[in-house]
Target: GNAT family N-acetyltransferase
Amino acid sequence: MASTTTAWSIAPEPFDSPVAAALWRAYYTEVSDRWYLLHEGRATDPDELEREIAANTGDRLAPPDGVLLVARYAGEPAGTAGVRMMDAATAELKRVFLRTDARGKGGAALLVTAAEEQARRLGAERIVLDTRADLVEARALYARLGYEESEPHNDDPYADHWFTKRLARPAAATSG
Model:
């Protein structure tokens, strides 16, 4: 089911679609370049970038245990958020990203909220994520949306911060 707010629309997208692939490349290029510039004073090596993009296809974000959402702003692909079930009650939020020209327009909160709804539909009672220390904007977003820092839930060598959030059950529908 798609959600729409003003110029934003968010809907599931196959992880291997051309739109998803282009947004994955933009996401990975940005976070990789940020890391290398901070730690090594250089951009990502193009060969390494291609290897990592090919190795991380996003297939864990495919049904029945996952979903990739694509946000569009004024009809143009602008960002992604993925959810994958880790166990029967826990979902993991992945690949939250907005293109730089789409930032500051409210899309990030809409994407995360839509991902939380997808996690609930998959049966999750809580959602977890990890992020890096240099991604301060992401950490601020998660804190603003009610995520709390938690113990590590994985051993990702690039993760510096782990977050969790209990997912409220949807209100029961009432009949009139």
User: Anything to note?
Assistant: The longest helix spans residues 18-40. The mean pLDDT is 90. The chain has four helices and eight strands. The radius of gyration is 16 Å.
